[in-house]
Amino acid sequence: MENDDSILLIGDKFPDYELQTTLGKIRLSESYSGRWWILLAHPGAFTPISTTELIALQNKIVEFKRIGCEIVGLSSDQIFSHIKWKEWIAEKLTVKVEIPLVADEDGKLARRLNMIHSRATLPVRSVVIVDPKGIIRLIMHYPDEIGRSTGELWRAVRALQVATDQEAYMPADWPKNEVIGNSIVLPPATDERSAQRRIKQDRCYDWWFCYRDCKER
Are 131 and 160 contacting, i.e. CB atoms less than 8 angstroms apart? Predict the structure, then answer.
């Protein structure tokens, strides 16, 4: 495991850690290289809100795979707890959870990703989205009492994919923005000449607010 214990931020490379998961020991950065993936932290196994989240994610797993995105869960519980938790969900709630769960027992990864807040000893409901190059592209934190929205997670990944592929910025509530619909926003102009050229060539409200159609893949 890397010795660096600094907090990881958006734009940083995801650390090359070997971790125990319900699928065996893997290196996340290696196993998911070339793909988008989401790491979701949970306060612990056998917790009601986390259980509903796992089920919601499993029910939408095909939609995530359709856009080339994998999902991984994490908590500081032992691997045995994760295994039993998945078995309990399958038996009691009739949902087979295929999502691998990481047993971050010493909390080192959770601390590097700033998933343990204040005086807490357990991870909050954090979300980390990593791109195919292994770069952290998004970090979100939810309190223990609020479950995450699978729809927003999907939208965030899809928006990041489009922003990357088309070198653009994504408006609020994309692809259903109230101002420009499913269009995408162009990066800011870097000088006066490009600003004036942009107004003539693109659809603009002003030189600093220009947009174009999204080329959906």
Answer: yes
Query: Are 154 and 203 within one domain?
Result: no
Report the alpha-carbon distance of residue 151 to residue 43 in Å, rounded: 21
How many domains does the structure of the chain reveal? Answer: 2
To 10 degrees, the CA torsion angle through 188, 192, 194, 196? 100
Distance CA 103, CA 125 (A): 15
Residues 156 and 180 in one domain: no
Same domain, 130 and 29: yes
Contacts of 73 (CB under 8 A, 6+ apart): 39, 40, 41, 42, 54, 82, 99, 100, 101, 102
**pLDDT above 80 (res 54):** yes
Name the β-bridge partners of 102. Answer: 21, 74
Beta partners for residue 26, in sequence order: 19
Q: What pTM, to 2 d.p., does this model score? A: 0.93
Model pLDDT for residues 155-201, shown as the tens digit of each residue: 999 999 999 999 999 999 999 999 999 999 999 888 999 888 888 87
Q: What is the CA radius of gyration of the chain?
A: 20
Domain that holds residue 213: 169-217
